[in-house]
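The protein record passed on for reference:
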Amino acid sequence: MINEEFKKYLENSFNARDTELFTLEVEIRNFKYSIDQIENNYSDIEEMVQFKEELKQTLKFSEVNKLKCMIMRDSFKKQLDDLNSTI
């Protein structure tokens, strides 16, 4: 029974990370689009240039978080694969 509970936990954790990855990818694309829009249409407005710089930092943060999330998701997958091979 403990293996089944652990397997369910791993499956739920894997699915949560997969959903998080999708959300992060949408955010990353949105940040890139917004940065391009500011560069192309609002580069003469100082506040928008500052906002663009904030977006660039947030983009970097999101890209790193995406990598972290991928590592965690892959870890859950590996554990699931290992558990399934022993059942």
